Amino acid sequence: MLARCVPLGEAVVVAVTGLLAWITERHPLLLSPLGPWDFSWPAVLATGFGLLWFRRGLAQAPMPAWRRTTFLLGLASIYAVLLTRFEFLAQHMFFLNRVQHLVMHHFGPFLIALSWPGGTIAAGMPPLLRRCCTTAPVRHAMRVLQQPLVAIVLFEGLLVLWLVPPITFRAMFDARLYAVMNASMVVDGLLFWFLVLDPRPAPPAPAGFFIRLVLGFVIIFPQIAVGTLIGMARTDLYPSFALCGRVFPAISAIEDQQIGGMVLWVPAGMMSSIAAVLIMRRMFAHDDRMALLQPEGAVR
């Protein structure tokens, strides 16, 4: 009866997650440096189910090797900054916290969206869950969240929200709020980059290539502004990192903020440039295909 309700693969993922939770709490020294030091049931289950459904789906919806590699690199990068010892470092240095959010909000979701794994993961899901993900309320919510204006406001708004000093201070000392902050970075990053890097024309994509090009370009400027304000500050905006104890005491609070300000916009700007190149290539490729489909003499 249990096997009918819970497929074997999903049961194994839950069991392994439970074992890791027990080891983390009772015998943390048994964990490798890659183990989930700051254990999170949602994060570990999401990683496990993602890998399971992706592997299972490849049998039904195969994809090129570069897309498989890109997906795995994106998932591994989020795991590395969220569930390994890096999480401890990110709680004790502002610039490493910015690196963590850069990976969770930009780099990891960018690579996952670039691999375009939706069809493969859906093919590997249990049928009941797949049907739940395609219900009318879910489709409607996705349409709303991937409206260009909504997407850009959420993408930049959440990034700025968690940088407001009083909110950052509260999040660093409230485990539940801290978990919400990290989860919002990953989920919002996936929503945004799946919109921007959608390889399809519109429709069926939610926005045309030009709108997506604008979205990828516009996000640079608020991040430059916020990064510059933080980097030029002459007071310690984020004292929580000093209270937690800096892992690199030779780096002062002001220097920490200066490096963090650069992390905010330099790598993110580079990723936006890469996204723009990819979108333009797809735009021109689509235009070329459309031209080839035109009847002879239709365009003069």
Quick structural overview:
This protein has 300 residues and is an all-alpha fold.
Overall description:
Helix 2 (8-26) runs antiparallel to helix 3 (41-58), helix 6 packs parallel to helix 16 (253-293) and helix 11 crosses helix 12. This protein has 16 helices and no strands. The termini are far apart. It has helices at 2-5, 8-26, 41-58, 65-83, 86-90, 94-115, 118-124, 127-133, 136-145, 148-161, 165-173, 175-196, 209-218, 220-232, 240-244, 253-293. The chain has one domain (64-116, 134-293).
Question: How would you summarize the topology of this molecule?
Answer:
Blueprint: H1 2-5, H2 8-26, H3 41-58, H4 65-83, H5 86-90, H6 94-115, H7 118-124, H8 127-133, H9 136-145, H10 148-161, H11 165-173, H12 175-196, H13 209-218, H14 220-232, H15 240-244, H16 253-293
